[in-house]
Amino acid sequence: MRATEPAGNRSSLAHQVRYALRHPERVPAHARRALRDALLRLRYRDHIAYYRAVMASDTARSAEAAVGHNPSREAWTRIGRMQFDYLVGHGLQPHHRMLDIGCGNLRAGRLFIDYLDTGHYYGIDISPHILLAAQDTLVAEKLQPKLPYLALADDLTLAFLPDAHFDVVHAHSVFSHSPLHVIEECFAHVGRILAPGGFFDFTFDRTEGVEHQVLHEDFYYRTRTLTELAAKHGLDARFMDDWEQLPHRQSKMRVTTAADRARTVGS
Q1: Sequential DSSP letters for 28-79
Q2: At a CB cut-off of 8 Å and minimum separation 6, what does 246 contact?
Q3: Measuring CA to CA, which residue among 137, 199, 128, 133 is closest to residue 170?
Q4: Which SUPFAM superfamilies match (predicted)?
Q5: Within the chain, which residues score under 70 in pLDDT?
Q6: What is the separation of C-alpha 95 from the centre of its chain, rounded to a whole number of angstroms?
Q7: What contacts 33, CB < 8 A, 6 or more positions away?
């Protein structure tokens, strides 16, 4: 049996009742999330602004919790290592230039920065609070000499980045928190910044049933939806079956430009 299984409809009342009965100790935390969601939706209509506020709230509690529901340092370290090992196993080389979308507090980024040549890591995030935490990680890991580039982003048009520059683009646990129009914005622009032979890896919460969301924080998509959306923008997207064997709840896809399918970096 695969480690990752497609989710059922977690927004349904039946699922919520069953979950509450199985995990009554988690009900207060979910109720707090629901209240926060309602208040932030009244204040922010734009999803990026809304989720930036979510990140500010989570980071105030714990930088580790802000990049994953499990706030333990052990889980933070393990999941970062999993991302790193997977990309290195799929062709990431020290001379490659990498863009890390939603870099957070460098859970995996600290490993990529150490591995890549100086100045070859670019991390962006929508949260100024988490980017400050990323700076703390750089200091703690003594990675300042590697000159990583960290930038605040307000959208996924990637307009401030150069054409054909990045060999690897990476977005872990970003699309799982993104409505479809945000994902499409990324698909519409990521091909421009990919170098010849480059690829874009992203994770997402997968369902084979009804696509749905839980609050405005968690979004569940069918693989076919994302494959077809990528094709609309001249991209080939394929499901990464080997990622499914790893102990992670999200699934992974890889995108390349349609004209570049024969010479992917990680082929």
Answers
A1: HHHHHHHHHHHHHHHH--SHHHHHHHHHHHHHHH-HHHHTSS---HHHHHHH
A2: 3, 4, 82, 86
A3: 199
A4: S-adenosyl-L-methionine-dependent methyltransferases
A5: 1-21, 23, 26, 65, 68-71, 260-267
A6: 23
A7: 215, 217
Using DSSP, state whether 209 is helix, strand or coil.
coil
For residue 238, the surrounding DSSP H or E stretch is strand 235-239
H or E stretch at 200: strand 194-206
Dist. CA 113–CA 121, nearest whole Å: 6
Q: CA dist 146 to 33, 105, 142, 166, 171, Å?
A: 38, 16, 9, 17, 21
Please name the residue that has the structure tokens 């580039």.
149
pLDDT digits (tens, 9 = 90+) for 187-241: 999 999 999 999 999 999 999 999 999 999 999 999 999 999 999 999 999 999 9
Count other Cβ atoms within 10 Å, centred on residue 84: 19
Name the nearest CA neighbour of 131 among 101, 99, 104, 158. Answer: 104
Q: Contact at 8 Å (CB) between 213 and 199?
A: no
Question: What's the pTM value of the predicted model, to 2 decimals?
Answer: 0.88
How many whole angstroms separate alpha carbon 184 and alpha carbon 152?
A: 20
CA distance 123 to 153: 10
Separation between Cα atoms, residue 191 and residue 25, nearest integer Å: 45
Q: Give ∠ CA 179-44-66 in degrees, rounded to 5.
A: 65
Nearest-angstrom CA–CA distance, 206 and 239: 11
